[in-house]
Amino acid sequence: MGRGRHGAGRGQGRHQAFARGAGAAGEVPQGRHACAQADRDRRQPAAHRRRQGRQEGAARQVLGRPGAASRVGRAAAQRLAPSLVRWGSAQAARNPERGPSDTVFYRRLGRPSASGNQMGLVMIRRVYRSRVRIWACLLPLAAYVAWVTRPLAQTSDTTSPLPQAQRLPAVPSVVSTFAGGDGPGRPGGTIEVLAGSDRETRMMTLLGYTRLIAFGPDLTLRPDILESYVVEEGRRFTFRLRPGHRWSDGHPFTAEDFRYWWEDVANNRDLNPNGPTVEMLVDGRPPAFEVIDAQTVRFTWHAPNPYFLEAQARALPLFIYRPAHYLRQFHVRYAQPAALRAAMQRYQTSDWASLHHRLDQMYVNDNPDMPSLLPWVPRTRPPSTRLVFERNVYYHRIDERGVQLPYIDRVILNVVAPSVIPLKAGTGEADLQTSYLKFDNYTYLKKGSNSFPFEVYLWETGTGSELALYPNFNHADPVLRKLFRDARFRRALSLSIDREEINEAVFLGLAHPSNNTVRPDSALYRREYGEKWATFDPQQANRLLDELGLVRRGRDIRLRPDGRPLELVVEMSGDTKEQADVLSLIASTWRQVGIKMVYRNQSRDLLRQRVTAGQTMIAVWAGVENAMPTATSSPREFVPATQGDLQWPRWGLYRESNGKAGEPCDQPEVQRLIDLLGKWERATDEADQRAIWHELLAAHADQQFTIGVIARSQQPVVVSRRLRNVPRKGIYSWHPGAYFGIYRPDTFWLDGDRPR
After folding, report:
1. Residue 553 falls in which region: left (phi positive, over 0), alpha (psi -120 to 50) or beta
2. Which family, according to UniProt (predicted)?
3. Which end of the chain is more exposed for a tag (fewer CB within 10 A), N or C?
């Protein structure tokens, strides 16, 4: 995430950039006084030019003193156009993102944000050349004066006509812990983030991690948007909303928003032909939904639903509510036919359901018209190379002093080519950046931090393995399928990987050799889960391969049972240097035990198609997503559950489709995992759930259903030196962390002005 210096005005002339900053109209005030002054100037051009030269030369001497140009520029603006300064203040308050870009000033003076000096130079040049141009000069400059000299917290105080007490719920959520240890901060300011496309507006749903129920720092679930919730028998869930809580447009957030989602979205066959999502079903049956009162709703199933609460807290949450007052205008049940047809024409959709889908993208977060409960709401509609998000003045969290969050007023996503994001982050164009940064960028970034005002932190990755090998239990070749299903073969592959060498050569010794399992800081971790069959032991690997009848007979490469050379093709998606280096080292040590390995890159979609079709031998992907589970977390990642399971896709598809597609599992060791998942789903006691988890993890360590390589590698995190409360050490995880989200970015704050 990052702050770019390439906003409005890049690639344009100075006058175009200034006009853009002045406002959409770009009009130049003119009148008889300005015309008369122009006539006087034309009557004495020589004297005028000589006087201009003397005065500009003297001014340059004055401007040579530190800060002098800033004082001259501001004084001139106040003296010559006080009314325009007031006008500029109003314009800046209404359109803060349209202020002139720092790029203009950076280019002129060679250092970022030298706004005062640049303003002084431009003011002097304009004033002494022709007073006819004073107005054209002062309009954008006056706006800029107000924009750059505003108090840091001004936007926080002026973006809503209501006082804070009327914007907050009756019982706001109070934040008293700050991940970075810098404590409560001051509101205001803008951070800028680098994005690889304008579709990455969804990044803000992670950065603004706000959920009905959220993960706390200890990974336990706690109310967030909700004031409270009660669970009875694991099947009855009562949610209590915060009285007085409002959407970002000021409309009350009530039980009606849940009712609309359940009745008019989730169970509407035009919008959801397949009915509610799997998290809302138990044994294929939906819950009974009740509106208790304006602030209370209840979902009741016939049996326990262990997935429901966690689904609210995920990085990609379930979103069981909608802004009904906004979306009803696009719903056939509520909208007037003529108005609905007009909206369909405006958005170029063929039917009302497509229209509703297009405007109802809670996670994508790209519709500025749609009210939100997140800390920052979109103000720019894609496509755009500069996406502006402004603070939600009705946000429900406050700090321990009673100051409303978020502290930061604006987050701007600057869209650039993904390949240049590491380069731009390394030259100080990022306030907060992890996207598109890899560990092999670390040296460059660290060097850049010596010249530019940012720091580079290293967070541990939160997956079970940086990359893991997924042998395909459903491979179309019966010989390979039998090998992959034999635990001895999988153990031999694991024992033939020199993880210590990989760690030193690729990760500079900063990662940790491990199976694909939970992290050591998980309450469910046991040492054997990470280490069993994970040491480099080619002698034992050779014994296991000999037991399988994979003979060598003096050859370099072993033979398969059908007499063909044992050659394994490993397929990956992404083709990063990191992956290629790791696989190259694995190929070398597998060769020592008589297995030839080649690897190749595929697109993500093609790789998944080939896996499901049984055409891949071994796929490479990141390890388990949630490597920090608790006993109440879902263990579905360790069990055939979906078509996306790379090691047993057809068994997963069979269960996902309720037997309509795929194949039933026919391997006892894997069927045992499925049975354990069923027991966990029915358990209501946490101790029972914990015992089931341990049995699952022990089975994975022993059977090597997937083969982990390296865990807890390092993720570079670029952080502006002005930005506070970003932890120096953290865990970079999609789930349950939502990357930055679990560290509460609404509590990040800016300390001081932009560095000179």
Report:
1. left
2. Belongs to the bacterial solute-binding protein 5 family.
3. C
* Tokens found for residue 519: 């992290």
**Helix extents (H) in 496-576:** 499-507, 527-531, 538-547
Q: Please, are residues 312 and 211 in contact by the beta-carbon 8 Å criterion? A: yes
At 297, the amino acid letter reads V
Cβ distance 366 to 201 under 8 Å? Answer: yes
| Residue 718, strand partner residues | 433, 456
DSSP state of 534: -
Tell me the residue type at 113: S
pLDDT tens digits, one per residue of 478-530: 999 999 999 999 999 999 999 999 999 999 999 999 999 999 999 999 999 99
Query: DSSP 3-state assignment of 708?
Result: strand
User: Does the structure show a pLDDT above 90 at 156?
Assistant: no
Annotate 669-694 with three-state secondary structure.
Answer: HHHHHHHHHHHHHHCCCHHHHHHHHH
| Cβ(476)–Cβ(683) below 8 Å | no
Hey, is 744 helix, strand or coil? coil
What span, in angstroms and rounded, lies between the C-alpha atoms of 626 and 304? 22
Q: For 213, which DSSP code?
A: E
Are the beta carbons of 496 and 595 closer than 8 angstroms? yes
- Check if the beta carbon of residue 99 is closer than 8 Å to that of residue 92: yes
Question: Which helix H or strand E contains 457, and what residues bound it?
Answer: strand 454-461
How open is the CA angle 353-358-361, to the nearest 5 degrees?
A: 115
3-state secondary structure 43-67: HCHHHHHHHHHHHHHHHHHHHCCCC
CA–CA distance, 21 with 91 (Å, rounded to integer): 10
Residues 331-365, buried b or exposed e (16+ Cβ, 10 A)?
bbeebeeeebeebbeeeebeebbebbbbbbebebb
Contact 605/504 with Cβ under 8 angstroms? no
Question: Is the pLDDT score of 116 beyond 70?
Answer: no
Helix (H, G, I), strand (E, B) or coil at 446: helix
Distance, in Å, from the CA atom of 717 to the CA atom of 713, rounded to the nearest integer, reads 13
What are the tens digits of pLDDT across the range 238-274?
Answer: 999 999 999 999 999 999 999 999 999 999 999 999 9
CB 698 within 8 A of CB 668: no
Alpha-carbon distances of 9 from 13, 73, 103, 339, 420, rounded to whole Å: 7, 21, 7, 39, 20
Angle (CA) 60-62-68 rounded to 5° is 110
H or E stretch covering 413: strand 410-415
Q: How far apart are CA 381 and CA 486, in angstroms?
A: 53
Could you give the CA distance from residue 714 to residue 439 in angstroms, rounded to a whole number?
Answer: 6
Tokens of 604: 């993500």
pLDDT score at 218? 85
CB 390 within 8 A of CB 409: yes
Element housing 222 (H / E): strand 221-223
CA distance 644 to 662: 12
Q: Report the sign of the C-alpha dihedral through residues 529, 535, 538, 539, in that order.
A: negative
* HEC letters along 694-705: HHHHHHHHHHCC
Which residue ranges form the domains of the chain, and what is each CATH number?
A: 14-150 (no CATH), 467-711 (3.10.105.10)
Query: Cβ contacts of residue 24 below 8 Å, gap of 6+?
Result: none
Which distant-in-sequence residues (6+ apart) come within 8 Å of 199 by Cβ? 364, 366, 382
* pLDDT tens figures, 166-218: 999 999 999 999 999 999 999 999 999 999 999 999 999 999 999 999 999 88
CA distance 457 to 449: 11
618 pLDDT higher than 60: yes
**Cis ω on the peptide bond leading into residue 383 (within 30° of 0)?**
yes
Environment class of 436 (CB within 10 Å of its CB; exposed 0-12, middle 13-18, buried 19+)? buried
Single pTM value for the model: 0.78
SS3 190: strand
660 Cβ contact partners less than 8 Å away, ≥ 6 residues apart: none
